[in-house]
Fold these 2 entries.
Entry 1:
Amino acid sequence: MSDALTVSRPGFTATPVRGGRRFSLQGRATTLNGTAKALGLAEVPAMLGTAQAGKCTLLRLAPQELLILTDDAGLPGKVTDYLATVPHSLVEVSDRQVGWTLVGERLHDTLAALSPLDMRARSFPVGCATRTLFGKADGMVWRTSEDTFHLEVWRSFAPYIVAMLDAAALDAAW
Amino acid sequence: MLLIRCPYCGDRAEVEFANAGEAHIDRPADPMSLSDEEWAQYLYMRDNPKGLIAERWRHAHGCNRFFNAIRDTRTDRFVTTYEIGQPRPEVTPEQAEEAAR
Amino acid sequence: MQTNRYSLFSLLWEACRGNTGWKPAWRKAEPASAYDFVIVGGGGHGLATAYYLARRYGGKRIAVVEKGWIGGGNVGRNTTIVRSNYLLHGNEPFYECSMKLWEGLEQDINYNAMVSQRGVLNLFHNDAQKAAYIRRGNSMILHGADAVLLDQDAVRAKVPFLNVDDARFPIKGGLLQQRGGTVRHDAVAWGYARAADRLGVDIIENCEMTGLRIEQGRAVGIETTRGFIGARKIGLACAGNSSRVAAMAGLRLPIESHVLQAFVSEGLKPFIDCVVTFGAGHFYISQSDKGGLVFGGDIDGYNSYAQRGNMPVIEDVCEGGMALMPRIGRVRLLRHWGGIMDMSMDGSPIIDRTPVDGLYLNAGWCYGGFKATPASGLCFAHLLARDEPHPVAVAYRLDRFARGAVIDEKGMGAQPNLH
């Protein structure tokens, strides 16, 4: 990805995430649970929760939906083997979405300009992930650590989101 | 801006949601046995109450699930939200009064 | 001597004696015990119905019952646009009839309603919209209305400040109805009220209908906050409250009530000389004679009787305005308001008998009721007087939903919040 997708302002940086693959899995609660078990987890993460299993990250974006982020190798064979036995919908969306890592001391002010969601730690703790609106663009935000966020939007929204983040970061830096 | 409580995601801003009209309108089990008038009642006729309404919402920019809500159409205040498939919950007089405030 | 006819002579006469002789435009009528016709709802449509009933159909003993005051509802809070640029056969003759009535309205009711045929320009932004507008324009011409297709250069020449070369939604042209325009909205209510009053119609304000009296399957009168009023025929013209009033007769209607917001800016020097609508979002704008920009957009999208709007739609409307004409970006909003629309299931109105004898319904105008005011009144009066639909309103039957003969101008299906 080009530098056109990077936002860098005093106190805020958005760096495009390179590599890795993304899978959207939809199914009943038992299917999602079975997938988590196949990855060695005790159970599927709760709504808006996330879980790490080896090279896979499971993000529970909806009761019936998991977004699974993996490395370039994709889903492990034990997951696809399990899914072959149950009704489900699995779609690779690696190229549909663009992700960024967001850092900086103006991070919260910048995000607040794009979304009315309260992303302070008490209501949006580490490990929390949700889909929401950023300006006009549908996107997903995930708090990966105390002061790092992961943001994903559909590829066609990327120039819009970059422009919005840049403007918001500029405002926040004042 | 309305603050709407998605039963799955919690309180969210109105812009994340899409309204889908009155709730608890069951599709007739055997449409072929209905008269045209009965089918029109199902498809087109609505109670359109001034006061408490049970209605469907979809968390379009969130978990994408449909759910039901009880809201007062005079004030746009919500009483409660609940999952699709559950019966319409009883509203206490205190809740109704609060929603009408 | 008191003056009640408006003319150059009466103006000069009153000017000479300090304007002391003007009569109130209409009497404050007290309800009588019974009437031939009772119209429930003293908005534009109700008043126009009473006027045409008395004027054209020889109706006597007519009352208009209004729960608030005349001009205080949607007729006093809309974006004042009149046009007849419809596509479907059920609609276009009706709206063209309305347009012709607007053209003769001021002479008809002896009242300056500031009918201004400044033109309505619907913009298109792509080839598909252009094809749709050509089809619509041809439909209009076939029904006796006027329509001109403007190309990009013609739009640029007519409205030079539009964002024609916008990257996302370039303006490719527009469909112009020159006979369309604006009418001073509350003057329409006042003018019809005054004209009806002069024909003997009782206009009863602050009188809310609370119930319907039905005897042996026939409506015989209405209960109101000012007592029972008997009636041979009852016409309902209650806009956003239609469902509530119909429920008094045990009826359910194919109608949902939704909030529509409209906006007025501070006064500016004249610069928009026609009505312009954006084709890529929902936004329409004109400039009032006072200088304020009058504009609006979509309904809020959920059932409501709250008569106040919400922020997301305000933002959406302002974004539409900025995309269309960036120069209004620094104009300040003076006021905005929300009214309750009777959104019907197919986006078209209902002027028909109800299953209850003696009870007639005029409803489902969605957010386009103002332009229909004269024809709605005429057709409803025709129905009340003759018990048969007016030729231009034959499609507006209540039973069209059961027959499947819906008039869905937008092709949205049974989704009132999308019409």
Entry 2:
Amino acid sequence: MRDKLFAPARDPLWSAVAAVACSLLVSFLAIAATGRDPVAGFGNLLAGALGGPGPLGETAIKSAVLILTGLSVAVAFTVGLFNIGAEGQLIWGGLAAAVAGRFDNPLALPLSLLSAALAGAAWGVLPGLLKVRRGVHEVISTILLNWIAIHLVHGWLVAGPLAAAGGGASISVAGTEPIVHAAWLPRFFPGSRFDLGFPLALLIAAGVWFLLTRTRRGFEWRAVGAGPEAAQASGIPAARRVCEAMALSGALAGLAGALLILGTEHKYPGVFRTGYGFDGIAVALVGGGSAAGTAVAGLFFGAVRAGSTRLQLSGIHPSFAELIQGIAVLLVAAPRIFLPLWKKLRGGEASGFRPQASGERR
Amino acid sequence: MTLRTLGISLLVLLCGCKKTQAAHTVGLALDVGGRGDQSFNDGALRGLETMAAGLRYTARGYEPLPDAEYALPGDLRDRPFPHLGIPQPLVLAGKAQEDYEPNLQLLVDQGTELSIAVGFMMEPAVRAVAARNPSARFLLLDSPVLDGKGKPTVLPNVRAVVFRENEGSFLAGALAAETTKTQKIGFVGGMQLPLIRKFEAGFRAGVMQVNPKAEVLVAYTGTFDDEKKGVEIGQDLYGRGCDVVFHAAGLDGLGVIKAAQQAGKMVIGVDSDQSHVAPRNILTSMVKHADVAVYLAVKDVMEGKFAGGDLVLGLREGGVGLAQVNAALAPPDAMADLEKLRAALIAGKVTAPATLDELAKFVPAAPAALGLAHAVAAH
Amino acid sequence: MNAILDFAPPLVFAALGGVLSERAGVVNIGLEGMMRFGAFAAAAGAIWTGSPWFGLLCGALAGAAAAAVHALLSLRFRADQVVSGIALNLVALGLVTYLLQSLFGSSGVSPEAPSLPRDRYGHTALAYAALVVPVLFHLWLSHTAAGLRVRAVGEHPRAAATLGVRVLSLRAWCVLGSGLLAGLGGATLSVGILGQFDSRMPAGQGFMALAAMVFGKWTPLGAAGAAFFFAAADALQRQLSFSLHAADLRLEGVFLALPYALTLLVLALGIGRTRAPAADGVPYEPEGR
């Protein structure tokens, strides 16, 4: 079944585009329904996302993180696993970056990124191992691992052993000590938080695309995703491949955490709530599970997020971005809604698009 | 359809981008707690909307607040806070950590004369935006401005307000110790932050000062936004024999109050006067006057007296304290004792510890020296 | 003990919802979203009418309405069931926050909602319902003709169809019932336990309900037992952290993580490998289309 997760979007790319467009339309109507001016609202949304270097920088920051968590989910999908644990992997990645970033040396930035990737990979490989060795369903194990990460990091490490020393009675400093300047992601434009994170995320997306579509390893991963038994029978070590992909998935989520810490926070804050791990699922789904699609979807949702800051000038709560995101996924989920339209456009032939599998087992 | 929408939006964007704001506009950026947390964020909003602007916020937007309904909670009733006649404030919500900086920048771009950042989580954002916009003015609540190494510093256009929560909590602890009949008192914190430890340390010292035999059970929920966790821990504490519990746990604390209502026991509220949430169960609230800090900053801006720098508000400055004590719950001589302790704290005869390390070294002053009526002798 | 009976019901109802849907062959990752809709609608209904019982009804119906979307997408439009469930969760997250803001002008909590009455032990009727419903559900699923049909549809839909069972419509009813139960679970949170809706509800409870369902091997009694086990582990963790004065050791986070780690350990030690219903998550196409 997992190999068919992306059947809809893989075939007609425009179905994802249509879903996104429809979700914008629905949210346009939703604004109007609550008695606000939707045109002004969308004007603000656009201005907040694209209106100048400042907003563009915000879009880039959010997009970079969403692209990475989206890729994390998409990579796990290729071997047929559903990684709901990107959030926990992101937290460990962020913490590792914050710790490694404390040591002042010329290589502080790459070392911090590397530690984040390793930490994320370590947390990501766990559900993979549990799945292949002990048969624990990854949806369950990743949910549990998220909670374990949240409590261990926020309730213990950042509050205790790794907490900043602070200074005196009247001063309450939460979080870890700040990272050194050498570990900051460099910014390029004055008045904008656009930093190295965005080009890095695009580069990684390209790398993932290459890995998944142009290498033997990528082919084997997809084979395992299509059917572990068949893959095993044809000589692919399925269990090993699952763990590898989960490690990469975790590493990508860990890097997403590192971008937030090294790019904007510059320390591990006392309260760090992102939700980006879960958003990654939406990004991967709308992006059709391909690296390119995920990058485009991440860009779109990042822009909506950034724009929702300014949307508040029209009296609309920023949670609106989540609403748009949810509706888009809902519509992507149901390609058949668009099927009649598609047929009409193509003059009756529904090429490249087949109804999903019938009742046989996978 | 969407294309046309897009076109229209672009048009609007081009025309409406540089909107000039009326004079004295004040902006406020909330942290993730948001509007309706019944504590710190709502306190800051009360200072801005109710007190300074004379407005009431509803689901439809702002409405003018009729004078008859301009009532301030508890201990503010006796102090005059006339409306300042500012236009509708601009209030922004923050969904995540990295939203704070664009939110504050947006306030500055909208031409607000004062931008208020609610909560210590906003500190890095205030530092960055204030440095980038030296002519804009900021009020940062609950944290000093820090430099790149995490040490406190001062920016000329930022007023950073911190509160001596330990002093108010000390009084709350003293009152709890005087009121308890079971000799068991509870403390519920939210996340384990130095800020919340300050409440805990002060509270436990207050209990020790009055009644060293009373036991304080401490628990942290690990969040600020899961009310159910508060109910669970509250139930546990009351089930273990506590009859007074103090919470410093944001939204979780509302859950603790719920547990108190269900158990018919006493609870001490936090940040704002929470007596309206459970009038029969709230013994008092340890208030942090974010409202007053906001009101005074707005007033200073309007009178041209706003200056940057640190402001530490403790008992002496009226920045923290106990809201109206529920006379039906507290013992009759408690009020006199509280007054004496308050004086002693202000005079420096007693120091409320602010960290657990300081708490470990805390030695209660001799009750006789303070003239406490109710104090239980040690040993 | 008290704590378990008070805090397990939301999880019990939602986990039973998961069992109903998946035994009929439809994966339901949308439990979290259905609970969220249920919790919000229950609070809103109770506030508007003043009756917590009416609120409860609203909550259950809202859960069912959300489930109807899931059924429509996954059964009528053959969307992938996992994707559709995730989408539902995302919509719930955004839409409910948006509604909370536009109806009550708050992004934190709703106004106080009337809550269900409690007996002299401090329990609501739902606490007892959480004990009874799993047993009834078990009897229904294992010992009635209707229950047999549900199981057949979840294991061998094609065979069931040849025996004259209308697979898709039966699956749709089970998904609706699943939403009803999950909505009830959410309503238990808002009008049962808290008397209020808070913006993060149900804060992962729906996902934990999924874990309980798998833990309980897709059986009503097992899932309910697992839900009670989770609540017990949580209560135990709090007792433990009190007794060891963990606050001064600053180890609270470790204790908070303990119940989850324990669950993972139990699963990993494989109290028997779990097996989902054979046709769980497999879309069904009627013949001759």
